[in-house]
Amino acid sequence: MDDALKLRKATYHLWTFTISKLISSFGAQVYSFAISFYILQLTGSATSFAANLICNILPRTLISPFVGYAADRYSRKMIVIAAQISTTLAIGGLLFVTLSSGLSLGAIYATTCILSITSAFSGVTFTSSITGLVDKERIQRAMSLNQMSISFASIGSPAVGGLLYGAVSMPTFLIMYMVASSFAVILESTMNFKLFSNRKTDAENEKKETMWQSMKAGISYLKLQPILMTIIWIGLLVNFLFGAFEVGYSFILIEKLKMPPTHFGITGGALAFGMLLMSIFFSVRKEVEFPLVLSKRGIIGLGMTIGGMAIPLLIIMPYSIVLAYYILIMFGFGILLIIVNTPIQVMLQKKIDDDFKGRVFSILETMAMALMPLGMVLYGFLYDIFPAHWILFFSSALLIGVVLYLARPSVIHHLHPELKEVRRPKKKAASFS
């Protein structure tokens, strides 16, 4: 295939990938919204609601290491298509149960577990395939469009979910989800996952590894990449400390400031809107030259924003000012999240060998998904004991301290040695008289 044809195919991939991710993200979030409402209306129990959340998180966390092995060993295209078909069949199974014997909690929990597993296979494999789908000059654009799809789904899914939940029956809603998921399957089947891939073919790689050996090889590969390990540690610690924001945001606005649900929803929309705008910006601008530098600055900004959330607790303000303040805070937080994530994701795509991408990204997902609930549980406990503003200030200082140490100048110069040339002052030319 000549270069011009490959570039045209890559452009096609950009849009099919974006539309497919939009369908899957939008469908999953609207489904989650509708099912959550249904569970609460059916049982009125927070425990039943929490059990559905566990069914969403736990299977994905447990299956992620095996997903990485599969993504590196087998056809990524077939895994993505099989995962999307399984999603369609799972929704079809729930529809059949609903029509034959009525919707039950057991059927909902089982479906949520299946969707969690298929989402893990689709998400990790798609992420591992970016460098095979598009040319390296447009990896940043692909990652930005991916994030744009997620942000758009975050903004629109509550409104669409609320509208559909009140306007159509549950069977009609499930049929709509099945049709959308089937369309995603058709789109994915037209994509060439090996267009720019550097993976070894089966003929070149006759050595057979067990699943355990393969996962150990992925960990060994990471240990030999000190810069990657630094980036991963930064990401994991940021995810853990993000619990201060996740728990504190809801606790402060709902419990401390007694903000009405409508206004609370507006602040959440501001976060998604900030992410969407910044994703659009990254999709059209040239690739970031020094990604770790930009992400470091973004994390420092996140730390300052987390500390800034405590200000209305210390200074008495009119309610309208408090609402405007948190809308601005959340909008800025959304922008900073993309500033932190997109350059790092692009750098990981370029730095990680194609044959190890699945295992590395699955290790990342497993650790991140394990740390985030741990952070939320810990911070939930802390917010019940200590004043909220002290927790936010301490977490803010800790986050800034962690990134200043892990992304210290020596580490940044090791990754971006050209920075020394950029910052070195030019010597004045000698004058001879």
Overall mean pLDDT: 81
**Segments where pLDDT lies below 50 for 5+ residues?**
201-206, 428-433
Helix content: over 70%
Q: What is the level-2 CATH architecture name of the largest domain?
A: Up-down Bundle
CATH class call of the largest domain? Mainly Alpha
Total individual domains: 2
Rg, Å, rounded: 23 Å
Q: Largest sheet, if any?
A: none
Subcellular location: Cell membrane
Membrane topology: Multi-pass membrane protein
Main location: membrane
Transmembrane segments: 12-31, 79-100, 106-127, 148-168, 174-193, 227-252, 264-285, 297-317, 323-348, 360-382, 388-407
Topology:
Blueprint: H1 3-43, H2 46-73, H3 76-101, H4 105-133, H5 139-167, H6 170-189, H7 211-223, H8 226-256, H9 261-284, H10 291-308, H11 311-314, H12 319-351, H13 357-385, H14 388-406, H15 409-415, H16 418-423
Helix pairs in contact: 1-2, 1-4, 1-5, 1-6, 2-4, 2-13, 3-4, 3-6, 4-13, 5-9, 5-12, 8-13, 8-14, 9-12, 10-12, 10-14
